[in-house]
Amino acid sequence: MWKGRFQEETTDLMKRFGESISFDWRLFKHDIRASIAHARGLERAGILTAEEVAQISSGLREIEGEIAEGTFAFSVDLEDIHMNIEKALTNRIGPAGAKLHTARSRNDQVAVDMRLYAKETIDLIGGKIQELQRSLVGLSRRFPGAVLPGYTHLQRGQPVLLGHHLLAYVEMLERDRGRLLDARVRVDCMPLGSGALAGSTILIDREAVAKDLGFACVSRNSMDAVSDRDFMAEMLFALALLGTHLSRLSEDVILWVSAEFGFMSLSDAHTTGSSLMPQKKNPDAAELTRGKTGRLYGNLIALLTTLKGLPMTYNRDLQEDKERLFDSIDTAELCLSIFAEMMAEATVNEAAMREAASDPFLLATDLADYLVKAGVPFRQAHEVVGQLTAYSLEHEKAFPDMSLAEFQQFSEAFGEDVFAMLELDKALEARQAIGAPSPTRVRKELANWATALGMSD
Ligand code: ARG
């Protein structure tokens, strides 16, 4: 494509080193879409005739069909998807094909392709996030009465409903989706027309091209537009944080399916056995999801490092952006899909959860609240319940098994009604505020999410 200036052939090693066709072929649809819009722009600018645009469009559609079917022969000699397509077009339709690259550089071309890809994949991942949210809401609704200990420091803290625990992830996922949608606003800006770095002397109505391609706006500075990869860094961050959340969910599942917890079981279809230990049923999907967080972090750091200190404007370093974004999108899509499927078929061992949640110490805070309601300052109430806990451990006697006289040894404020509040279900129902896990509240939250996620009752 640049043979005019060169006398020597590129070496095979250099071709192998420089090519991107082995991964950027995935942009073929976006590249073709953008080329057709560009051709129409050239027509409006008086560079191409309607006839030539028709030839270009149908030639490109043919090529698109062949690539989709797998019959198109890519060439490493042609370096990337842009040149592979352009060469094939010119071979097919002749001179009109050779006019297509007017007022365009691969620099604005690749930038527009990546933005089209980014918009499409943000929508894809957004949908996958909602699939997992639906699956978690569904699991909660299949086990509406499941109560388990909530943990801090992985030590039993206070009782919560399973739905409350799972909705915590639904909230995290909603923020992840929101972050991607925020980034989408900045993705939605068309760089095409920026040329190599300084636009073109051939005047194209960029706003009309943007409209054609469905972009909300056009970039305002050609130098920025060809080298801006902020939108990818934002996406990679949003996906890295999604990975953080998925790794936490994974960890819960891994703990819950262990014999030590026994809170959950996964379907055979989502677990694997051991080649050595016949009894094993391993939560590999959760472990792999947890492990793949490493890629999601790595891709973010790799791109930021590539961008650091780059002189203006386009530099070939930027070719390194694609595999990072492709990999994070692919990874996120797979992890979300497998988790949605796995959670939809998981079952919960309500009895084991309830037994763990029935640990009377989980209501120690409730006892302190009881004293506060009777007028005892919280700090003092905390100390009283601490002493009661020591007494309970020493005498191996749980709170509900103590007599009123025993309670009153520690505080006169205890009355008969203390026993009622030591019942798990009553204690849960007492947590009424917005954001708290009373069954009434959780039911409402689940209903709101189900509506928001378009789930049927
Ligand atoms: N394959 C290149 C990339 O991914 C396309 C842009 C090439 N531009 C150039 N001036 N060499 O970045």
Q: Which short descriptors sum up this protein?
A:
single chain; 457 residues; mainly alpha; Fumarase C, Chain B, domain 1; Fumarase C, Chain A, domain 2; Ribonucleotide Reductase Protein R1, domain 1; 3 domains; two-stranded antiparallel sheet; two-stranded parallel ribbon; 20 helices; 62% helix; 5% strand; elongated; binds arginine
Short description:
Helices cover 62% and strands 5% of the residues.
What does it look like?
This protein is mainly α. It has 3 domains: 12-102, Orthogonal Bundle (Fumarase C, Chain B, domain 1), CATH 1.10.275.10; 107-188 and 223-355, Fumarase/aspartase (Central domain) (Fumarase C, Chain A, domain 2, Up-down Bundle); 359-422, Ribonucleotide Reductase Protein R1, domain 1 (Orthogonal Bundle). Helices cover 62% and strands 5% of the residues. The chain has 20 helices and 6 strands. The chain has helices spanning 12-18, 21-24, 28-44, 50-69, 81-93, 95-99, 106-142, 162-187, 206-213, 222-227, 230-256, 284-307, 321-344, 350-357, 364-373, 378-394, 404-410, 418-421, 424-429, 439-452, and strands at 147-152, 155-161, 189-190, 217-218, 264-265, 347-348. The strands form 3 sheets. Strands 1-2 form a two-stranded antiparallel sheet. The longest helix has 37 residues, at 106-142. It is elongated, with a radius of gyration of 30 Å. It starts with 11 loop residues before the first helix and ends in a 5-residue tail after the last helix. The model has no long low-confidence stretch (mean pLDDT 96).
